[in-house]
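Dear support,

We are seeing what looks like truncated structure output for some complexes. This example has two components. We would appreciate it if you could run it in full and send us the complete token output so we can diff it against ours.
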Amino acid sequence: MNERDSVAEEEDEEEGAEGRGLTPDIVREIRVALDDERFGEVREQFAGLHAADQADLFELFDRDRRQKLLEAIGARLDPEALAELERPVRDALVEMLGPKRVAEAVAELNEDDAVYVLDALSEEQQKAVLAAVAEDIRRPLEEGLAFGEDTAGRLMQRDFVAVPAYWSMGQVIDYLRSAEDLPDEFYSIYVIDPAFRPIGWVPLDRAMRTKRPIRIGDIMEADPVVFRPEMDVEDVAYEVRQYDLTSAPVVDESGRMIGVIMVDDILDVVEEEAEEDLFQISGVREDDLNRSVFRTTRTRFSWLVINLVTAILASVVIGFFDATIEQVVALAVLMPIVASMGGNAGTQTLAIAVRALGTKDLTAANAMRQVSKELLVGVLNGIAFAILIGLATYVWFSDPILGGVIAAAMVLNMIIAGLAGILIPLGLDKAGVDPAVSSAVFLTTVTDIVGFFAFLGLGALFLL
Amino acid sequence: MNERDSVAEEEDEEEGAEGRGLTPDIVREIRVALDDERFGEVREQFAGLHAADQADLFELFDRDRRQKLLEAIGARLDPEALAELERPVRDALVEMLGPKRVAEAVAELNEDDAVYVLDALSEEQQKAVLAAVAEDIRRPLEEGLAFGEDTAGRLMQRDFVAVPAYWSMGQVIDYLRSAEDLPDEFYSIYVIDPAFRPIGWVPLDRAMRTKRPIRIGDIMEADPVVFRPEMDVEDVAYEVRQYDLTSAPVVDESGRMIGVIMVDDILDVVEEEAEEDLFQISGVREDDLNRSVFRTTRTRFSWLVINLVTAILASVVIGFFDATIEQVVALAVLMPIVASMGGNAGTQTLAIAVRALGTKDLTAANAMRQVSKELLVGVLNGIAFAILIGLATYVWFSDPILGGVIAAAMVLNMIIAGLAGILIPLGLDKAGVDPAVSSAVFLTTVTDIVGFFAFLGLGALFLL
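Here is the complete output from our reference environment:
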């Protein structure tokens, strides 16, 4: 977002890109207007924003300004914005709005967005909101809430277009033109059998090109990919990407079509999935950007405690060799190098392995090949860095044996690091544990302990 | 992919999910058939696979089996599979196939996929292939190749449906039913002015519901979001997500519509964007899962060299205090704890900050608030871990002063870590550098040096 630094051409796009959106300037203007209590101006500016930008604006402001902004815009908040908000900010807003206005907003949202918003509410908030919405809207929402978080059932739209195979294109068109309860958006017409099971689909572009007399069953794509409502959204996302689906039916245990998953609902899932791996490997359990200081401190604390234990374990290993260190202080000076190089090399492998497991590019079918590859990479880089650090040490301390000791420890630790970097996530995955969550700790524990033990142990052997 | 360990219900989905796809069993069967040279069976199995699964199969096999598989299936490789392959595997396959057969495949692909495949080829390979395709196909491909990598121009489809605003729905339908050169897939009908500038669009579902006499201009959505072909795909992806676009026109400098970006082309961009941050923070420049051992070793080496320098810098700092360590070996035993805790705390902040910059959730508008938040988190966790490690040290070495020293160093380093974790990426971003690429090294350099210096320095002051 640094238009200033970017070259002219890019700048044009930036402007183009930001023009519709939330430019730093607009944010500034609104902030100033807000602080000067020129609420009319704020309302005007705010009304011009897309729901997603309205949401971002609330996230950019601090607690007080959010409150003030909400008062300023009154009822003018786009319901969609509620669904776009990061949870902590949404919680705050819901508090400020109160069940009545939240219910009004929920009633206007798509079912999947409405369920998404409701799910984040507290028990009693949820009850209050549901009580305030009309019967016909409440029923499907309650059904949606019945499905587990991160399931296809939560993500699916309950409105879709389904017709029998014997209908002609003309009948379909007339039905579409007259029907009242059609979804706001659909990409395909589904073809169902008498038991309401999806047997095929017709993409709308094909339907548009088909003459009225033609039977829908004759132009449909058969055997659609179907999902079960309990299915994990990450598995759904994987198939949507793998098979380039724009939408796919969701069926209940009897095979009856109950909803449809659309590609644009998958975008966020795909991003969050990849983002999750980064956060979890880095030891943050969630995107805490908009969390309170205390919540953030608490969740990060739990991960750091585990790392403290790891670090103390490493110190215990060093403790075994305090007598050696007393005699050869150079060992103390150099020992972090071996450990940290191992940690870095292992993390490289870990990142690749964790993502590959997530995208199903690393499976039982190629695990052995990948492990032996990492072993080789470890050996090669191990030798390379053994030479580098060995010579550097020799020059620095003019002690060839010390150089040899650190070189040997380096090779060993780099090899262990490479193997640990892939074997740990593979093992966790086989054990049914999400490799992203815990791999990193195990890895650094291994590379620290091996690194310190190998270097100090060899030092004790050859330098005393 | 561990159906065995998962509970029954999930298992059903797994089966369901994998059923269509590349189950471990299918991979095994094909591998065995291949090794037994039962090529007929291999062809049969392979022909039943979706292009994306055919690509995965090649990636799962090693070099020799790929060669053998290619011979086995002969010309039966789905052209789409070429576009789905990871680059290193595709390079190998292109070599094996030769320009003639690659040209045949390219001719069958969508333009954006064809350009994607061609772009990865070597200079002379590209020439050879282009020479082998028909004139009318070559022209648009050459145009596509003219756009920079990762630009909207590369991603866009050049075929789209555009009609003047005064056309009636009837005219549009008749045009669609008769026209020859329509795209295989489209979600919207674009409305253009006499200068061929997009002035609106009609989603196909709305078009289907519109009676023949109605003017297209009266039902269109006005002012479409448009992209420039030079625009970075990550910015395009950001807007597609932010504004829930299913497709959007691409226009040249005169505003003339030259192509269209579709949401399903964005899925991979969105995933790669988030994935990139993980890889770069972890020090892998690229997804090297399918790279050769040597290529992998080389690219990872360059990052590890930088980290070696960092580690040596830290050692130099320790070197300043060798006299102190000689007298109080406990310092050597404990010093890695302070440094590693700082590194871990900093990495937590770094991951959040880097992603937030990528998704434009962290901007000039809220930077100060986030920085002071990280400062507070650092102070709070710093105090918490100072108490923990201070007491642990006191118990372990029954030396209260040593406990006090490590506690003080811990607080200091955790605070510095939190600040560095957000200020470094913010600074790099402002400087126009991708914060994901280099933040991690700077961070560990800071946390190591501050960690060792603070702990050993305080030790020298209070323990001698």
